[in-house]
């Protein structure tokens, strides 16, 4: 696309936006079981959108210029701190999402301990945002296996992994892949005994687990009220149901929050003090999060927790009753993962996509089998029976089709490729030769072949292929 010489009418622009979105997955209704979170309450979405637009052009870069940013952030952070056990009132930062919250938690820990060769101790089920933060911040990742029956990390394995370079220990509430909560109290205790901070990744569960507990679920202690927990991340654009770009990272100690900040006076321009990775950023997400919290209130979130718990219970039981689809672990949250016994889950995912439903594939790793992941939200209960029927029908179709059969030698060929020596056009031709046409105009490819190839590769090779995949999709 070239920049038009003259400006285009608004009506034309909006019509083109609609055209561009025609093949997108729907963001409402519950048929997309990842990436989007839906209350099913149009009035809440409307309130958030209006507040987002009202704050759209306000810049969070300088709170002295826009005091509304300070007041809104205090209210949002204060509400999260109140729910997540911050007895001191909570010392937090509003961020653009879980990855940025995690990035700041890692930076704060690194700068607080200032060790020569810093490392993070994380379960293999910890979110890749920790690996990303470590990559950006020059920190090594020490990955700890999880129990393959419960999918939870063991505190004794964490203790054994801590060494003189450890700056932060991580536990999840819950971990995303199987929706189980790590033993937070025990992990925090071994971290504290070693003199190391402990971060709880509650990006998914921080604004969900309290409401599930209120609805009667057995939720163990996981937040800042647990001795030894020094920071916690909580995404409001997940189970807070706020528009995207909304998360909070809380610190038990204000001194550690200050270590998350960045300041620079080494130039002749305006003074720089950033609470987040970003500098200039729209206050739209902050306004949307503030409005969502205010529109729902505690009572609204408790009701959403109740229906989410009911939907999750029905979904787990329904999937377990379908032959060949074992549910992995015993998730305390509303994340459900199931594997395939005699059924190729990647083929099942394509079958479900053809029926208008998106189930998220997860590759095998560290002894955990390939599986499909479902995020249950406030709108799921209304369609849980329809979802179970789609899963059952898709499982039957996948069983009949059989597993993906890759051409002989394909995995070895891909593993042995020097991907850096291929340009994007050559990589696209190679993908098309095995039935995965990524070139413009080719349409949406079935992903079973892609996922099967990725699943057969080691993690480093998977990452290299994914980088090229993204490069081809976006083009030059």
Topology:
Blueprint lengths: L9 H11 L21 H13 L12 H17 L7 E5 L2 H16 L5 E5 L5 H9 L2 E5 L10 H7 L4 E7 L11 H10 L4 E4 L7 H6 L16 E5 L11 E5 L2 H7 L1 E3 L7 E3 L9 H37 L14 E4 L6 H10 L5 E3 L8 E5 L8 H18 L8 H7 L7 H10 L14 H9 L2 H16 L2
Parallel strand pairs: 2-3, 2-4, 4-5, 5-6
Antiparallel strand pairs: 1-7, 6-7, 8-9, 10-12, 11-12
Helix pairs in contact: 2-10, 3-10, 4-5, 4-9, 6-7, 10-12, 11-12, 11-15, 14-16
Pfam families: Pyridoxal_deC
Organism: Nonomuraea polychroma
Cofactor: pyridoxal 5'-phosphate
Question: What would your notes on this structure say?
Answer:
This protein has 476 residues and is an alpha/beta fold. The protein has 3 domains: 50-292, Type I PLP-dependent aspartate aminotransferase-like (Major domain) (Aspartate Aminotransferase, domain 2, 3-Layer(aba) Sandwich), CATH 3.40.640.10; 298-401, Aspartate Aminotransferase, domain 1 (Alpha-Beta Complex); 410-474, no CATH class. It is 43% helix and 11% strand. The chain is built from 16 helices and 12 strands. The chain has helices at residues 10-20, 42-54, 67-83, 98-113, 129-137, 155-161, 184-193, 209-214, 254-260, 284-320, 345-354, 384-401, 410-416, 424-433, 448-456, 459-474, and strands spanning 91-95, 119-123, 140-144, 166-172, 198-201, 231-235, 247-251, 262-264, 272-274, 335-338, 360-362, 371-375. A 7-stranded mixed beta sheet has the order 1-7-6-5-4-2-3, sandwiched between helices. The protein has a 3-stranded antiparallel beta sheet with strand order 10-12-11, covered by helices on one side. A hairpin with a 7-residue loop joins β8 (262-264) and β9. α6 (155-161) packs parallel to α7 (184-193) and α14 crosses α16 (459-474).
């Amino acid at each position: 696309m070239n920049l038009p010489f003259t400006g285009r009418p608004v009506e034309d622009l909006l019509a083109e936006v609609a055209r561009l979105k025609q093949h997108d997955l729907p963001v409402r209704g519950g048929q997309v079981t990842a990436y989007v979170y839906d209350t099913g309450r149009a009035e809440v979405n409307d309130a958030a959108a209006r507040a987002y637009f009202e704050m759209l052009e306000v810049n969070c870069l300088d709170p002295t210029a826009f005091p509304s940013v300070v007041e809104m952030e205090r209210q949002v952070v204060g509400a999260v701190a109140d729910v997540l056990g911050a007895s001191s009132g909570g010392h937090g930062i509003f961020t653009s999402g879980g990855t940025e919250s995690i990035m700041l938690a890692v930076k704060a820990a690194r700068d607080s301990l200032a060790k020569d060769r810093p490392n993070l101790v994380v379960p293999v089920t910890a979110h890749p945002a920790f690996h990303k933060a470590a990559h950006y911040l020059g920190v090594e990742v020490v990955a700890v296996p999880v129990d393959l029956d419960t999918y939870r990390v063991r505190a004794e394995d964490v203790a054994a992994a801590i060494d003189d370079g450890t700056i932060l220990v991580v536990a999840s509430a819950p971990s995303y892949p199987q929706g189980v909560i790590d033993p937070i109290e025990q992990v925090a205790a071994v971290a504290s005994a070693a003199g190391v901070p402990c971060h709880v990744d509650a990006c998914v569960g921080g604004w969900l687990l309290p409401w599930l507990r209120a609805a009667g679920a057995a939720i163990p202690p996981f937040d800042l009220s647990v001795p030894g927990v020094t920071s916690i991340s909580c995404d409001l654009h997940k189970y807070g149901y706020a528009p995207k770009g909304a998360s909070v990272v809380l610190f038990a100690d204000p001194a550690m929050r200050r270590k998350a900040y960045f300041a620079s006076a080494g130039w002749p321009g305006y003074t720089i003090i950033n609470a987040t990775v970003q500098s200039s950023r729209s206050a739209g997400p902050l306004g949307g999060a503030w409005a969502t919290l205010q529109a729902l209130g505690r009572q609204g979130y408790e009701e959403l927790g109740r229906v989410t718990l009911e939907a999750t219970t029905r979904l787990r039981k329904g999937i377990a009753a379908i032959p060949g689809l074992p549910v992995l672990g015993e998730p305390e949250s509303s994340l459900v993962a199931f594997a395939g016994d005699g059924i190729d889950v990647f083929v099942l995912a394509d079958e479900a996509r053809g029926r208008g439903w998106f189930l998220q594939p997860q590759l095998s790793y560290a002894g955990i089998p390939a599986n499909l992941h479902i995020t249950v939200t406030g709108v799921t209960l209304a369609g849980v029976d329809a979802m179970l029927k789609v899963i059952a029908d898709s499982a039957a179709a996948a069983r009949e089709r059989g597993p993906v059969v890759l051409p002989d030698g394909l995995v070895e060929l891909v593993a042995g490729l020097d991907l850096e020596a291929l340009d994007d056009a050559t990589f696209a031709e190679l993908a098309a030769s095995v039935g995965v046409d990524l070139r413009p105009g080719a349409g949406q490819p079935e992903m079973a072949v892609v996922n099967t190839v990725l699943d057969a590769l080691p993690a480093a090779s998977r990452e290299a292929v994914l980088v090229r995949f993204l490069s081809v999709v976006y083009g030059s």
